[in-house]
Amino acid sequence: MKYNKIISYAMDFVSFVLEHMPPICAEHIRNILLFGSGARAEYTKESDIDIFFEVSENMESVEKEVIRASEEFYSSVKNKGYWKLKGFRQIFSCKVGNQEIWGNIYPALLSDGIVLYGKYCSSEIRGSNRVLLFWENIPSSTARINLYRILNGYTARGKKYPGILKRYDSVRLSKGSVLVPLEYRQHFRDIFKKLKVPVKELLVNIL
Prior knowledge:
The chain folds into two domains: about 5-115, Beta Polymerase, domain 2 (2-Layer Sandwich), CATH 3.30.460; about 130-205, Alpha-Beta Plaits. About 35% of the residues lie in helices and about 25% in strands. The protein contains eight helices and ten strands.
Protein backbone atom coordinates (compact mmCIF):
# COMPACT_ATOMS: atom_id res chain seq x y z
CA MET A 1 0.00 0.00 0.00
CA LYS A 2 1.23 3.47 -0.85
CA TYR A 3 2.32 5.62 2.07
CA ASN A 4 0.17 8.61 1.07
CA LYS A 5 -2.91 6.38 0.82
CA ILE A 6 -2.46 5.22 4.41
CA ILE A 7 -2.30 8.82 5.59
CA SER A 8 -5.38 9.71 3.52
CA TYR A 9 -7.26 6.74 4.98
CA ALA A 10 -6.31 7.81 8.52
CA MET A 11 -7.32 11.42 7.85
CA ASP A 12 -10.72 10.30 6.55
CA PHE A 13 -11.21 8.20 9.67
CA VAL A 14 -10.27 11.07 11.99
CA SER A 15 -12.55 13.50 10.12
CA PHE A 16 -15.44 11.07 10.43
CA VAL A 17 -14.84 10.54 14.17
CA LEU A 18 -14.70 14.27 14.87
CA GLU A 19 -17.81 14.96 12.79
CA HIS A 20 -19.81 12.29 14.63
CA MET A 21 -18.62 13.21 18.10
CA PRO A 22 -20.57 15.56 20.41
CA PRO A 23 -18.92 19.02 20.47
CA ILE A 24 -18.59 18.85 24.25
CA CYS A 25 -16.21 15.87 23.79
CA ALA A 26 -14.43 17.11 20.68
CA GLU A 27 -13.41 20.36 22.42
CA HIS A 28 -11.24 18.37 24.84
CA ILE A 29 -9.13 16.88 22.02
CA ARG A 30 -5.83 18.74 21.65
CA ASN A 31 -4.18 16.67 18.95
CA ILE A 32 -4.67 13.52 16.93
CA LEU A 33 -1.65 11.68 15.56
CA LEU A 34 -0.90 8.74 13.34
CA PHE A 35 2.00 6.72 14.76
CA GLY A 36 3.49 3.23 14.62
CA SER A 37 4.14 1.32 11.42
CA GLY A 38 1.72 3.47 9.40
CA ALA A 39 3.64 6.63 10.23
CA ARG A 40 7.01 4.97 9.57
CA ALA A 41 5.99 3.68 6.13
CA GLU A 42 6.48 0.11 7.41
CA TYR A 43 2.80 -0.75 7.17
CA THR A 44 1.60 -4.17 6.01
CA LYS A 45 -1.87 -5.53 5.29
CA GLU A 46 -1.81 -7.33 8.63
CA SER A 47 -1.01 -4.17 10.63
CA ASP A 48 -3.46 -2.17 12.69
CA ILE A 49 -3.42 1.58 12.13
CA ASP A 50 -2.39 3.33 15.35
CA ILE A 51 -4.08 6.63 16.20
CA PHE A 52 -3.47 8.67 19.35
CA PHE A 53 -6.05 11.15 20.66
CA GLU A 54 -4.37 13.56 23.08
CA VAL A 55 -7.00 15.05 25.38
CA SER A 56 -6.99 17.69 28.11
CA GLU A 57 -9.74 16.17 30.29
CA ASN A 58 -12.89 13.97 30.26
CA MET A 59 -10.82 11.09 28.87
CA GLU A 60 -13.43 8.42 29.58
CA SER A 61 -16.17 10.32 27.76
CA VAL A 62 -13.92 11.01 24.76
CA GLU A 63 -12.79 7.39 24.63
CA LYS A 64 -16.41 6.16 24.59
CA GLU A 65 -17.24 8.50 21.73
CA VAL A 66 -14.13 7.48 19.79
CA ILE A 67 -15.12 3.81 20.08
CA ARG A 68 -18.71 4.54 19.08
CA ALA A 69 -17.75 6.72 16.11
CA SER A 70 -15.16 4.16 15.01
CA GLU A 71 -17.82 1.46 14.74
CA GLU A 72 -20.00 3.83 12.73
CA PHE A 73 -17.08 4.53 10.39
CA TYR A 74 -16.59 0.84 9.55
CA SER A 75 -20.21 0.58 8.42
CA SER A 76 -20.32 3.99 6.72
CA VAL A 77 -20.92 4.51 3.01
CA LYS A 78 -17.55 6.21 2.63
CA ASN A 79 -15.70 3.25 4.09
CA LYS A 80 -17.70 0.50 2.37
CA GLY A 81 -18.12 2.31 -0.93
CA TYR A 82 -14.59 3.68 -1.25
CA TRP A 83 -11.90 2.45 1.11
CA LYS A 84 -12.92 -1.21 1.18
CA LEU A 85 -12.99 -1.20 -2.62
CA LYS A 86 -9.42 0.11 -2.49
CA GLY A 87 -8.42 -2.84 -0.31
CA PHE A 88 -8.40 -1.07 3.06
CA ARG A 89 -10.01 -3.32 5.66
CA GLN A 90 -7.73 -2.65 8.60
CA ILE A 91 -8.81 -1.81 12.13
CA PHE A 92 -7.86 1.48 13.72
CA SER A 93 -6.23 0.98 17.09
CA CYS A 94 -7.11 4.15 18.99
CA LYS A 95 -5.52 5.31 22.21
CA VAL A 96 -7.02 8.20 24.18
CA GLY A 97 -5.21 10.07 26.95
CA ASN A 98 -2.21 12.24 27.73
CA GLN A 99 1.46 11.92 28.61
CA GLU A 100 0.73 10.92 32.20
CA ILE A 101 -1.26 7.87 31.10
CA TRP A 102 0.49 6.96 27.85
CA GLY A 103 4.05 8.08 28.61
CA ASN A 104 5.44 4.85 27.17
CA ILE A 105 4.34 5.76 23.63
CA TYR A 106 5.28 9.46 23.74
CA PRO A 107 8.79 8.82 22.36
CA ALA A 108 7.20 7.15 19.32
CA LEU A 109 4.78 10.05 18.91
CA LEU A 110 7.62 12.53 18.97
CA SER A 111 9.97 10.70 16.63
CA ASP A 112 7.47 9.16 14.18
CA GLY A 113 4.07 10.81 14.76
CA ILE A 114 2.19 12.51 11.94
CA VAL A 115 -0.28 15.19 13.00
CA LEU A 116 -3.76 14.58 11.63
CA TYR A 117 -5.51 17.19 13.76
CA GLY A 118 -4.26 20.01 15.96
CA LYS A 119 -0.78 21.45 16.39
CA TYR A 120 1.48 19.00 18.17
CA CYS A 121 4.31 20.70 20.02
CA SER A 122 4.64 19.08 23.41
CA SER A 123 6.90 21.26 25.55
CA GLU A 124 7.10 18.53 28.20
CA ILE A 125 9.24 16.25 26.07
CA ARG A 126 10.59 18.09 23.03
CA GLY A 127 14.30 18.74 23.35
CA SER A 128 14.76 16.78 26.60
CA ASN A 129 14.71 13.25 25.17
CA ARG A 130 17.56 12.01 23.03
CA VAL A 131 18.64 8.74 21.50
CA LEU A 132 22.13 7.31 21.70
CA LEU A 133 22.92 5.56 18.43
CA PHE A 134 25.95 3.30 18.46
CA TRP A 135 27.51 0.82 16.06
CA GLU A 136 30.41 -1.62 15.77
CA ASN A 137 33.30 -1.42 13.31
CA ILE A 138 32.05 -1.10 9.75
CA PRO A 139 33.77 -3.68 7.49
CA SER A 140 32.93 -1.91 4.24
CA SER A 141 35.28 1.03 3.69
CA THR A 142 32.80 2.57 1.25
CA ALA A 143 29.96 2.48 3.77
CA ARG A 144 32.27 3.78 6.50
CA ILE A 145 33.47 6.74 4.45
CA ASN A 146 29.96 7.58 3.24
CA LEU A 147 28.60 7.46 6.78
CA TYR A 148 31.24 9.78 8.19
CA ARG A 149 30.81 12.20 5.29
CA ILE A 150 27.04 12.29 5.87
CA LEU A 151 27.46 12.75 9.62
CA ASN A 152 30.29 15.29 9.65
CA GLY A 153 30.01 16.94 6.25
CA TYR A 154 32.70 17.35 3.61
CA THR A 155 34.26 19.77 1.15
CA ALA A 156 34.18 19.25 -2.60
CA ARG A 157 35.61 21.63 -5.22
CA GLY A 158 35.98 24.36 -2.64
CA LYS A 159 32.36 24.10 -1.48
CA LYS A 160 31.45 22.98 2.04
CA TYR A 161 28.57 20.56 2.60
CA PRO A 162 27.45 20.46 6.28
CA GLY A 163 26.75 17.13 7.92
CA ILE A 164 23.50 16.05 9.50
CA LEU A 165 24.98 16.23 13.00
CA LYS A 166 25.02 20.00 12.74
CA ARG A 167 21.71 20.17 10.89
CA TYR A 168 19.84 18.12 13.49
CA ASP A 169 21.50 19.47 16.65
CA SER A 170 23.27 16.17 17.28
CA VAL A 171 26.63 15.34 18.89
CA ARG A 172 29.36 12.86 17.96
CA LEU A 173 30.40 11.17 21.21
CA SER A 174 32.93 8.71 19.85
CA LYS A 175 34.03 6.98 16.67
CA GLY A 176 30.98 4.74 16.82
CA SER A 177 28.29 6.74 18.60
CA VAL A 178 26.16 9.87 18.26
CA LEU A 179 23.56 11.52 20.50
CA VAL A 180 20.46 12.57 18.54
CA PRO A 181 17.30 14.51 19.52
CA LEU A 182 14.46 12.01 19.64
CA GLU A 183 12.40 13.87 17.07
CA TYR A 184 15.13 13.29 14.46
CA ARG A 185 15.72 9.61 15.20
CA GLN A 186 14.01 8.40 12.03
CA HIS A 187 16.26 10.55 9.80
CA PHE A 188 19.32 8.77 11.20
CA ARG A 189 17.64 5.36 11.07
CA ASP A 190 17.00 5.80 7.36
CA ILE A 191 20.64 6.68 6.69
CA PHE A 192 22.02 3.66 8.56
CA LYS A 193 19.49 1.43 6.82
CA LYS A 194 20.42 2.78 3.40
CA LEU A 195 24.13 2.18 4.09
CA LYS A 196 23.37 -1.29 5.55
CA VAL A 197 25.11 -0.43 8.81
CA PRO A 198 23.58 -2.19 11.87
CA VAL A 199 22.92 0.32 14.63
CA LYS A 200 21.68 0.01 18.22
CA GLU A 201 19.65 2.55 20.18
CA LEU A 202 19.36 3.68 23.77
CA LEU A 203 16.82 6.27 24.93
CA VAL A 204 18.39 9.00 27.09
CA ASN A 205 16.54 11.63 29.11
CA ILE A 206 18.57 14.83 29.50
CA LEU A 207 17.66 16.59 32.77
